[in-house]
Design a protein that fits this description.
Layout lengths: L1 E5 L3 E5 L14 E4 L3 E2 L4 E5 L6 E3 L10 E6 L6 E3 L5 E3 L2 E3 L1 E3 L7 E6 L4 E7 L3 E2 L1
Parallel strand pairs: 3-5, 4-6, 5-7, 6-8, 9-13
Antiparallel strand pairs: 1-2, 7-12, 8-11, 9-10, 11-14, 12-13
Length: about 130
């Protein structure tokens, strides 16, 4: 079986007798309990005795990286970056504050210039 990548169809399997299994994307879950500077994309759970501030890496250093954050506490955790680092439609800013709700989450993809919203739960603030 021959696998090709199509810009319209994604992965395309051409006929043949072999079976190919493509596993789903998995990420290691990184538990963060205090403020830190991030260096790579990944899945991060935020849980501390107070709100946590995560400093994002320079967008130019992680193009294509996926960042997933989930708050395990009721604190308004904060992500910081350079000017205009966070983009959600026309809204841009250097600080993203997660809602102070347990299980609030945000998914960001880096395009090499900024961190773009892919999805979120609850309402978050960009400033």
């Amino acid at each position: 079986m021959k696998i090709t990548i199509s810009p319209i169809l994604g992965l395309k399997a051409e006929s043949g007798s072999d079976n190919i299994v493509i596993a789903g994307i998995t990420m290691v879950v990184n538990a963060i309990t205090s403020s830190t500077v991030l260096t790579a994309g990944g899945m991060y759970t935020l849980s501390g005795s107070a709100a946590i501030t995560q400093t994002m890496p320079a967008a130019a250093s992680v193009p294509g990286a996926l960042f997933v954050f989930r708050s395990l506490t009721a604190f308004a955790n904060v992500l910081t970056g350079s000017t205009g680092a966070f983009v959600n439609g026309a809204t841009k800013g250097s600080k993203l504050t997660l809602s102070g709700s347990i299980d609030s989450s945000v998914i960001l993809t880096c395009d090499g210039k900024s961190f773009v919203f892919n999805g979120s739960s609850n309402v978050h603030t960009i400033s």
